[in-house]
Write a structure and sequence with these properties.
Length: about 160
């Protein structure tokens, strides 16, 4: 998926039993991630994914400051992280991942990204700004192993309980 204004709305089929193995992102969140990373350029942009724990369903993204202020690494503002966690919990949601940009490389976790991956249950979304249009990919990182997961962009945010 390379065009943030018209991402693919298709993806792999849902496995038997209805369990989703991947990330579902509302179009509005997709566009917010891409726009935030473009605005942060030449530094890396970053933010948090808020969603339903254990499902891969993202309800919204929260762009944050990159307190590392770097084109090579990112650090999510810890105060913004705490505020986001508290707000998500109040809604019955959770921080389910993080996104950040790679300004000059592909959308694949660097050795630093893998080393610093804080939670094996999180989704790690990379936005590459190497090409004219951002490329967005998502990964799971567990014990140093990087596994790409499918990303499906949905038209709307699902309402709680649906």
């Amino acid at each position: 998926m390379t065009d943030p204004s018209s991402p693919s709305l298709t993806g792999p089929p849902v496995p038997a039993g209805g369990a989703w193995a991947g990330l579902q992102v509302p179009r509005s969140a997709w566009l917010t991630m891409a726009a935030h990373c473009l605005r942060a350029y030449p530094e890396e942009g970053c933010g948090l994914l808020v969603g339903v724990p254990g499902t891969g369903e993202v309800r919204r993204v929260v762009p944050t400051a990159n307190v590392a202020a770097s084109a090579r690494v990112y650090t999510v503002d810890p105060r913004a992280h705490l505020r986001t966690e508290r707000a998500a919990e109040a809604e019955g949601l959770a921080v389910v991942g993080v996104f950040h940009s790679h300004t000059h490389t592909e959308a694949y976790p660097s050795a630093t990204d893998v080393q610093q991956a804080p939670d094996p249950e999180w989704h790690y979304v990379l936005v590459s700004l190497r090409q004219e249009l951002p490329t967005v990919r998502s990964y799971r990182i567990r014990q140093g192993e990087v596994v790409e997961e499918p990303v499906v962009v949905t038209e709307h945010v699902r309402e709680p309980g649906r």
